[in-house]
Amino acid sequence: MAELAARPRRSVLYMPGSNARALEKARDIPADALILDLEDAVAPDAKEEARAQVCAAAKQGGYGKREIVIRVNGLDTPWGLADIAAAVAAGPHAILVPKINSAADVERAEEALTDAGARSGIQLWCMIETPLAMLNIQAIAAKAREPGSRMSVWVMGTNDIAKELRAAHTPDRVPMLASLGLALIAARAYGLVILDGVYNDIKNEDGFADICEQGRDMGFDGKTLIHPSQVGPCNDIFSPDPETVAFARKTIEAFELPENRGKGVLKVDGKMVEILHAEIARRTVAIADAIAELETAS
């Protein structure tokens, strides 16, 4: 789980499964992860064609070190189980299941992956996007602690949250901060990666940057995106800056000195740092190193 948590997921771009050209173009987009989408981006009469295209693209590969995720249709839809069977055979890094409302839904999704013959490395990502999910959020998160659980990442469905709450998309997102906060607290309590939802106004670059910064400051690991133009700014905002990384390395080095073993507080560059700061520093460095490796390979 620690290795999965340290993997960069700053920018996670949805790609419509019904658009073969977009699936091909995605091989050159510098997103950390791609969600090949069979759900919202695909009309009902195009579901089966999209499934075939997405699974063929995933099997073909050519996406470098980008994490490949297939978002299937909901378990209660006519396409959900067939999507999972086809997605498992295609061998992505993860399968994203929408409308997870309860711990029982996580169990159903896990069972569906197992029944389809999923190898042990395929993760389960879950969309958190309804009021019922918020009311059941701790029970959902607790499934990650069960032996053999595949659940590793939550994706906030902010458009669906706004719809279900009958809330407005305001620049500060006040109407959905309670939902975002509850999910974030539960994810952190049970060791899950959590991704912020999409930003719809593609041309509003300043508004997008503000929302990315808000999500980063709240504690989200990254953000889901709907357009390639959002990838670069998102990567920049969710990357630790060089000064932070340099100080993190100094903090780690200071606590590892033989004369500092067992100490709970040290002074680094004139700042008082505690053991908890060393833990934060190790994660910062791990993410920075993983980002550098990913960008070198892309």
Overview of this structure, please?
The protein is an alpha/beta fold and 298 residues long. Helices cover 47% and strands 16% of the residues. It is built from 13 helices and ten strands. It has helices at 2-6, 20-25, 47-60, 80-90, 103-115, 131-135, 137-142, 158-165, 177-189, 205-218, 231-238, 242-256, 275-297, and strands spanning 11-16, 33-37, 67-71, 94-97, 123-128, 151-156, 193-196, 222-225, 265-268, 271-274. Helix 3 (47-60) runs parallel beside helix 4.
Supply database-style keywords.
298 residues, alpha/beta, two-stranded antiparallel sheet, 10 strands, globular
Tell me briefly what this model is.
This protein is an alpha/beta fold and 298 residues long.
Topology:
Layout: H1 2-6, E1 11-16, H2 20-25, E2 33-37, H3 47-60, E3 67-71, H4 80-90, E4 94-97, H5 103-115, E5 123-128, H6 131-135, H7 137-142, E6 151-156, H8 158-165, H9 177-189, E7 193-196, H10 205-218, E8 222-225, H11 231-238, H12 242-256, E9 265-268, E10 271-274, H13 275-297
Parallel strand pairs: 1-2, 1-8, 2-3, 3-4, 4-5, 5-6, 6-7, 7-8
Antiparallel strand pairs: 9-10
Give helix and strand order, one letter per element, not per position. Answer: HEHEHEHEHEHHEHHEHEHHEEH
Number of E-state strands: 10
- Mean residue pLDDT: 94
Helix proportion range: 40-55%
Helical segment count: 13
Radius of gyration: 20 Å
> What structural class results from the helix and strand content?
alpha/beta
| Spatial strand order of the main sheet | 1-2-3-4-5-6-7-8
Overall 3D shape: globular
Largest sheet data = 8 strands, parallel, barrel
- Taken as a percent bin, the fraction of beta residues is 15-25%
* Low-confidence residue ranges: none
Distance between the termini: 24 Å
